[in-house]
Design brief:
The complex is a heterodimer of chains A (111) and B (114).
Chain A lengths: L2 E4 L4 E4 L4 E3 L1 E4 L5 E7 L5 E7 L5 E4 L2 E4 L9 E3 L8 E8 L5 E3 L3 E6 L1
Parallel strand pairs in A: 2-12
Antiparallel strand pairs in A: 1-4, 3-9, 5-6, 5-10, 7-8, 8-9, 10-11, 10-12
Chain B lengths: L3 E4 L2 E4 L5 E7 L5 E8 L3 E10 L2 E4 L7 E2 L9 E3 L8 E8 L9 E2 L3 E5 L1
Parallel strand pairs in B: 2-11
Antiparallel strand pairs in B: 1-3, 3-8, 4-5, 4-9, 5-6, 7-8, 9-10, 9-11
The chains are: A mainly beta (111), B mainly beta (114).
Chain lengths: 111, 114
């Protein structure tokens, strides 16, 4: 079956530091890849997505590129802010709408 | 406002007492799904529905039931809750089951079974 492996957390950074959260996947067929973000006490919300190989998703300064050759979808941001503190989930969506999520990575950004 | 709503947001109950968690979406989405979130395990799918009257098991369906009588509603039923069902539950919906469609999540229901 499909699987998603995320970089283990928690991750603690200082404001304006560079962020990378690694995500690799195994899947059959041609899944789409997603990053969702969860703020405390809230549900998940879409951060960005890519629907085919070599696509780059971007939003709010975050980026991730769908790399089929390395089966990866790493999340990056050049300069994090305190408001970026949250839990980040990598996910893939394959056939029949089936979604598989990573375990989540908790990011804390300190001023 | 386009949204997925869940009720209740918090629930404490006792073993064996039947309960229902409601989920409703106002976006005319065909696909709806229930997940549970447990520490270190990410989100695991319980049940999903591709359309009205069409439901199917996800990865962890034991102890749960669902129904989809109307497009907007997808209640999660625990006929005889047990402590191992203590968890944070999320309902989600998407326009279709297409793999490019984004899922929209409700705010979550924190359930404690004593």
């Amino acid at each position: 079956g499909n699987s998603v492996t995320q970089m283990e957390g928690p991750v603690t950074l200082s404001e304006e530091a560079f962020l990378t959260i690694n995500c690799t996947y195994t899947a059959t067929g041609y899944p789409s890849l997603f990053w969702y973000v969860q703020y405390p006490g809230e549900g998940l919300q879409l951060l960005l997505k890519a629907t085919k190989a070599d696509d780059k998703g971007s939003n709010k300064g975050f980026e991730a590129t769908y790399r089929k050759e390395t089966t990866s979808f790493h999340l990056e941001k050049g300069s994090v802010q305190v408001s970026d503190s949250a839990v980040y989930f990598c996910a893939l969506r394959g056939n029949a709408g089936k979604s598989t999520f990573g375990d989540g990575t908790t990011l804390t950004v300190k001023p | 406002e386009a949204q997925v709503t869940q009720n209740p947001r918090y629930l404490i109950t006792v073993t064996g007492k039947k309960l229902t968690v409601t989920c409703s979406q106002n976006m005319n989405h065909e696909y709806m799904s229930w997940y549970r979130q447990d520490p270190g395990l990410g989100l695991r799918q319980i049940y999903y529905s591709m359309n009205v009257e069409v439901t199917d098991k996800g990865d962890v369906p034991e102890g749960y039931k669902v129904s989809r009588k109307e497009k907007r509603n997808f209640p999660l039923i625990l006929e005889s809750p047990s402590p191992n069902q203590t968890s944070l539950y999320f309902c989600a919906s998407s326009l279709t089951s297409g793999n490019t469609d984004t899922q929209y999540f409700g705010p979550g229901t924190r359930l404690t079974v004593l």
